[in-house]
């Protein structure tokens, strides 16, 4: 709709000279030949070759013939051509575009323009293809033949398939909490260097469980063309916590922990309820989106959240048909819904989830929809949206993406049950803090907001996305859509940065307390009385204390556990305690520039060691292979990274403890640490922005503790509401946040 629809069949054709399949992230030389149609191209007319918003294909450049991305264009009649590489100067979803303008001459019908992406004739290594898979990566050709700057898309633009490389990372995925004797599945996959599930055809896997597992074969072989292996019918017949190992191609991978309980009232269902496909701003079709989440990310629950102003009535019907078709209670729960995508000034992004198909879509606008037949249903501001939604049919979460949610501007406690703390866009603890400042009672979720066709296993690749996508664990009585919705409404869930960490919190009282299912701020009525309540509960207590309990089984050693009461940190627990001087120093860089789209912070820096030596170095939360540690030696290293509200870190293992200096230099600040005089207390440097800065801390040289239980008696003074939750941080950089338990004092 946004482009002219005038006679596309008269606008010429385009042919791409390239392999039918190209490995993700590989360097290529690709030649596209455009042939003019009936009108030719007039003087000052132009072509645009558009690429999708999310693509991280290497940047096009025109000035250095020996460098990556060098691109040329030649007209067959010798007409002068002007080349520009543009971002967000083309109509979405084709946000990135190569502009080719004809200037000082014209092209006649049948004339050609030959474009070489990654032209290797003068030494360029080529152009890097995008780092994630796509069944039909499109070179979207638009023509302004009559020099009106009114572009017409060709009837058919060239495509290639982007396919995975060989496996280098291995994953063995189990549930987190199951009932003893109840069947579940083990998922196994290998990922290429950019974290795409790889072709496993014919590969054999050796499974090494402990004695508690039943139903597991000793070996399994992947079918031809398989990108994952799923073994059904596995059981744990005795209570306890268990892991297993899988050997694949000479590598051994350890699974996440799974806990079995004989009478578990709730099990954990892992979800990514927020992403989109190429019908809006994402990658691959909606069917491929759901198939990836089910078969390659091993999700229990999935949702699709396309931008509403791109969802036509026909696609809304298709979305509902697709969730209905894929939804399978006990196996794979699919949530119909959409992203209400208003500007921040009128409320900002909200994720709208429906209990059933067939609900009316209330768009923020029809900005990219040609038909205005349903424009009367639009809800232009967040308050309008809340006024039109039925709390029994819908649940809303506040989202931080391009347009961040302003929950102070509008919030409905009957509908908006959660805020999204983490996604591919970064980490946003500030929105949780906003909720506390406003006195809201919300749960915490994390999702991918994936645009790369990898729901549930979304990595940023080489683009401006700064983080691995998150996951939400719903605590449910069964794996069904009604049970998931009950967990959403009652805030019974926790979010992680993508790791399947087991986390359980609960609160106990000496005498029974009043409980609420629906926030009393929304007019909810008391739902009953209890002495122990789960994560996300809202209670009113006449007791002087609450006993807060937590149980954590991490996927890596636990660095810290923060017990929080709203905006306050009550206590920090470090299960892997530092005992005496250590040879290990962690340099943390973190934060964002702003809340909005320009939040990304680029970090370029160096570390110099004097009077000591670097024996080993490692970088955390760096998913972009173009960045990371560079030029490392015993006396220092150079590095680059990006943060978008999340954090990254460099760990140094030095030859001596408490000797010499470590000088950290970055484009956002610098500090020299005298190790001999350092008392081990973390050093923090503020660099402005939104939590942007550096932290230097000493860590134990090796960490082993992955399990921790916590029990604390906390006073509940009259007139004060406790909002008790945890933030868990692992040694490997992953985090988890429990939804708060809200304790109102009677």
Description of the structure:
By secondary structure, this protein is mainly beta. The protein has five domains: 8-163, Immunoglobulin-like; 169-264, Macroglobulin (MG2) domain (Immunoglobulin-like); 268-498, Metal-dependent hydrolases (TIM Barrel); 502-576 and 708-746, Immunoglobulin-like, CATH 2.60.40; 584-699. Helices cover 7% and strands 42% of the residues. It is built from five helices and 56 strands. The chain has a 15-stranded mixed β-sheet that branches. A hairpin with a 7-residue loop joins strand 12 (140-144) and strand 13 (152-153). The mean pLDDT is 96.
Summarize the structure.
With 746 residues, this protein is mainly beta.
């Amino acid at each position: 709709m946004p482009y002219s629809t005038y006679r596309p069949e008269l606008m010429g054709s385009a042919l791409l000279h390239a392999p039918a399949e190209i490995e993700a992230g590989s360097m290529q030389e690709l030649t596209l030949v455009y042939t003019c149609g009936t009108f030719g191209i007039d003087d000052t007319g132009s072509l645009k070759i558009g690429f999708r918003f999310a693509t991280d294909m290497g940047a096009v450049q025109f000035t250095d013939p020996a460098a990556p991305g060098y691109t040329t264009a030649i007209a067959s009649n010798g007409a002068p051509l002007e080349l520009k590489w543009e971002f967000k100067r083309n109509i979405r979803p084709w946000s990135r575009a190569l502009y080719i303008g004809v200037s000082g001459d014209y092209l006649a019908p049948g004339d050609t323009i030959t474009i070489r992406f990654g032209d290797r004739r003068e030494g360029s290594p080529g152009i890097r293809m995008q780092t994630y898979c796509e069944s039909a990566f499109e070179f979207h050709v638009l023509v302004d033949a009559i020099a009106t700057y009114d572009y017409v898309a060709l009837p058919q633009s060239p495509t290639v398939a982007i396919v995975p490389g060989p496996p280098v990372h291995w994953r063995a995925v189990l549930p987190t909490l199951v009932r003893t004797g109840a069947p579940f599945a083990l998922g196994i996959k290998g990922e290429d260097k950019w974290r795409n599930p790889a072709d496993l055809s014919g590969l054999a896997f050796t499974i090494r469980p402990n004695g508690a597992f039943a139903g597991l074969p000793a070996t399994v072989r992947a079918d031809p063309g398989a990108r994952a292996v799923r073994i059904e019918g596995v059981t744990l017949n005795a209570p306890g916590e268990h892991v297993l190992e899988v050997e694949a191609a000479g590598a051994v991978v350890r699974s996440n922990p799974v806990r079995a309980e004989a009478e578990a009232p709730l099990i954990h269902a892992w979800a990514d309820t927020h992403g989109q496909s190429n019908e809006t701003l994402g990658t691959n079709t909606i069917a491929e989106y759901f198939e990836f989440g089910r078969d390659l990310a091993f999700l229990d629950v999935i949702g699709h959240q396309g931008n509403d102003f791109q969802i036509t009535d026909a696609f809304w019907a298709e979305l509902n048909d697709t969730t209905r078709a894929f939804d399978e209670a006990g196996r794979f729960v699919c949530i119909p819904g959409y992203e209400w995508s208003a500007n921040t000034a009128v409320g900002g992004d909200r994720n709208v989830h429906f209990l059933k198909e067939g609900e009316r879509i209330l768009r923020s606008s029809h900005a990219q929809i040609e038909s205005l037949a349903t424009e009367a249903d639009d809800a232009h501001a967040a308050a309008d949206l809340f006024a039109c939604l039925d709390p029994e049919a819908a649940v809303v979460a506040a989202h931080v993406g391009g347009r961040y949610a302003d929950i102070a501007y509008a919030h409905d406690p009957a509908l908006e049950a959660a805020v999204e703390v983490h996604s591919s866009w970064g980490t946003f603890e500030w929105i949780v803090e906003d909720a506390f400042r406003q006195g809201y009672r919300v749960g915490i979720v994390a999702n991918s907001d994936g645009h790369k066709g990898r729901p549930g296993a979304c990595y940023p690749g080489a683009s401006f996305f700064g983080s691995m996508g998150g996951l939400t664990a719903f605590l449910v009585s069964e794996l069904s859509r009604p049970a998931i919705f009950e967990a959403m409404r009652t805030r019974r869930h926790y979010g992680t940065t993508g790791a399947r960490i087991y986390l359980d919190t609960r609160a106990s009282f000496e005498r029974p307390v009043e409980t609420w299912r629906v926030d009393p701020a929304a007019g909810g009525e008391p739902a009953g009385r209890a002495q122990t309540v789960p994560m996300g509960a809202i209670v009113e207590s006449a007791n002087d204390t609450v006993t807060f309990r937590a149980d954590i089984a991490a996927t890596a050693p636990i660095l810290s556990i923060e017990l929080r009461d709203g905006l306050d940190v009550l206590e920090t627990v470090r299960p892997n305690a530092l005992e005496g001087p250590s040879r290990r120093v962690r340099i943390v860089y973190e934060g964002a520039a702003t809340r909005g789209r320009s939040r990304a912070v680029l970090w370029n820096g160096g570390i110099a060691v004097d009077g000591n030596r670097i024996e080993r170095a490692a970088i955390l939360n760096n998913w972009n292979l173009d960045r990371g540690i560079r030029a490392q030696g015993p006396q220092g290293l150079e590095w680059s990274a990006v943060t978008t509200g999340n954090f990254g870190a460099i760990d140094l293992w030095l030859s001596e403890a408490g000797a010499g200096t470590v000088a950290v230099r970055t484009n956002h600040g610098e500090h020299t640490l005298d190790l001999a005089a350092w008392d081990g207390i973390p050093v923090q440097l503020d660099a402005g922005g939104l939590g942007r800065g550096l932290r230097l801390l000493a860590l134990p040289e090796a960490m082993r503790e992955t399990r921790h239980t916590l029990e604390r008696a906390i006073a509940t003074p009259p007139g004060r509401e406790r909002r008790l939750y945890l933030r868990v941080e692992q040694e490997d950089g992953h985090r988890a946040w429990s939804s708060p338990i809200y304790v109102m004092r009677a």
